[in-house]
Amino acid sequence: MTDLLKILSKTHWNSVRYDFLIITSILFSLMVTYCQGLQLNSLSTKMPRVTRYTTKSPASSSMNHDATTSIYRFNATNGITCILISVDGLISIKYRNKLNEDVEADLYLPDNPVLSGECVESNMELLTLEFKGFKLSMTFKKSSGGEGWYINLFELTYSSSNPLFEHPDRPGLDVKLTSPSHTPMYFPTPVGKSYVCDKEQTVLMFAPLDSGDQSGHIARLYLRDLHMQSFMFKESGKWGPPFHCSATGSYRDETAPLAVGTALAIAVLLTISGYGGWRYFKIKKVQYGTME
């Protein structure tokens, strides 16, 4: 009887060690898979910097952002700055010429456009840049709770006979392009902070189907080295604390890692529970058979 108990005890201990090794291997394999998934997810979100252009100045090798960006400051009627933007911007407009070819015309945002706008309403501000026959307007709004601000609408107006366009197929048209209505929040930022992003941002503008516009023009606004703030009302006219689009220059969806982590936890729990139950009944059956 004593020898039998020793055999059972030794068998049980070996079984426990075996179970421990199996469970440890399973956990290690799942953790490796999870980490690889996170690394691949992180790599996929780090998009390469797409640049439609290089710099405004002839010195394209310059790395000084201040040399290529333009600053637009709009003051309220009391002289206090309410909108401040620093950006290296380009407008690229696709149109069709008389040869029935689709071509593009590029236009840089200038250093000294004619600025106009509104900073009267507490929940909405407007800034318009006028230059070379073009008008670029941006409508700023506050969130419903008043804790954040964002750009609600981009609008670009000009004539299709503008000298920028070479032999357009439809000259003499008044063109009005706007950002899509289904994208109502650009660059959301907490009130009191300034939006900062090193990644090049792109805003698409086109004429809605029901607008009656027959030009067929499509514009893309490229914003590089963007630093922007609305609803400032600071006597000093200086930036608020920066609110970065992300540390890597791209946005990251945090729901994917959370979902993967939750799935991993459930898988580990089910694996351990299932394997533990299977081993329990197997050992119990072996012990019962040995006792007989």
From TrEMBL:
One cellular-component annotation, GO: late endosome membrane
Keywords from the UniProt entry: Endosome, Glycoprotein, Membrane, Signal, Transmembrane, Transmembrane helix
Membrane-spanning residues: 20-40, 258-278
Pfam families: Lamp2-like_luminal
InterPro entries recorded: Lamp2-like_luminal, Lysosome-assoc_membr_glycop
Subcellular location: Endosome membrane; Membrane
Membrane topology, record value: Single-pass type I membrane protein
Record has Aminoacyl-tRNA synthetase as a keyword: no
Gene3D superfamilies: 2.40.160.110
All residue ranges annotated as the Lysosome-associated membrane glycoprotein 2-like luminal domain in the record: 68-205
Keyword Transferase set for record: no
Record-stated family: Belongs to the LAMP family.
Protein name: Lysosome-associated membrane glycoprotein 5 isoform X1
Top-level taxonomy: Eukaryota, Metazoa, Ecdysozoa, Arthropoda, Hexapoda
Gene: 101889740
